[in-house]
TrEMBL record:
Organism: Chitinophaga solisilvae
Source species, domain of life: Bacteria
InterPro entries: Aminotransferase_I/II_large, AON_synthase_class-II, PyrdxlP-dep_Trfase, PyrdxlP-dep_Trfase_major, PyrdxlP-dep_Trfase_small
Alphabetic keyword roster: Aminotransferase, Transferase
Protein name (record): Pyridoxal phosphate-dependent aminotransferase family protein
Listed GO MF terms: pyridoxal phosphate binding; transaminase activity
Record domain Aminotransferase class I/classII large: where: 44-392
One Pfam family it belongs to: Aminotran_1_2
Amino acid sequence: MDIFEKLLKHMGPIGEHSERAHGYFAFPKLEGEIGPRMKFRGNEKIVWSLNNYLGLANHPEVRATDAKAAADFGMASPMGARMMSGNTTYHEQLEKELSDYMGKEDTTLLNYGYQGIMSAIDAVCGRRDVIVYDAECHASILDGLRLHPGKRYVFKHNDIEDCEKQLKRATELAKAQGGGILVVTEGVFGMAGDQGKLKEIADLKDKFEFRLLVDDAHGFGTMGKTGAGTGEEQGVQDKIDLLFNTFAKSGASIGAFISGDKAIINYLRYNMRSQIFAKSIPLPIVIGHLKRVQLMRQHPEMKQKLWDNVNKLQEGLKSRGFNIGRTNSPVTPIYLQGDIPEATAMCLDLRENYNIFCSIVVYPVIPKGQIIYRLIPTAAHSDEDIELTLKAFSETKAKLDAKTYQVAEIPVI
Ligand code: PMP
């Protein structure tokens, strides 16, 4: 059998809708400068689906630094992996500044977050070790688990009792095998917006021996007094043994980093396959990161503005009777009831008639009959953006509840 043949018969749970959805619900093209107003199919939309939390993407100093660094060095430089020929003073300076910001001894850069965290898990855990992880961890963590040759135990999302139960099992097994335990969770869960229970998990260190890896992709720059993340927010930054962050969200760039004690970070530096065998982050990106980190630290008003907008949006939704679940971060889900045709029609109405562009999640990603919109407020949104969006959701929800949305056709332009 041709290996491609079976693939093309079943395009996968999302791929099977590709013909109808491509270019609209999947792979849409947002055009113009990154910000709260962008063009979609030629018309301006209020955009709620970009993780540009602090509005850094179009900060004039960021744009100027990125452009100058690209002109000075080009995108090729440095060539090769860090270990071989791809190291520079800028890479090391960025690692130092990030360590200082995160309150950790050392940091190593990761050329991509996804591969980086997979590779960190792979480098830390051998076949005798046991991984205990939250059920709602990001795909990059789950793929890291797939590389793990040993045992893993999942605990129910943010359920500390279950976490403790799994830690008991893990402890017995690790003892019998002569291995250790790595607990993996997130600072902010990207779909529901609830914070991981870092403090409660860290407290379990009194009872069990384990190391804690936290993916704080959504917490970096947005949570904690200085923006150092969810560990800072919950007062347990020092209890996080390995702290993973990405520049793909509030950092408005690409690339990531992992911070911790000097010895373990140095171990990772010399043992993470995704870094040893892959090209180092280009210099213009590293220099751009230095500027971003400087702005994050020197301008707390960006985070304040983000949170003002988060509070306006979330309070506005709650006071209008929307269910936004258990979020305690900027991530703002809206939970509604409806089947796929109604969800599609509502989303179309929001996009075409109210000019609201946001992400929607339906079956098979979540159970049938549920609709989740996910809004990401940023420091760049205006009061008008928020007001128009609240009005649009109120009106479209009324139509959804009145069963007005029946069949949806994607308009042809
Ligand atoms: N972890 C989480 C929780 C994420 O949301 C993402 C996606 N940005 C990643 C890891 C992967 O990071 P990157 O985009 O930098 O590859």
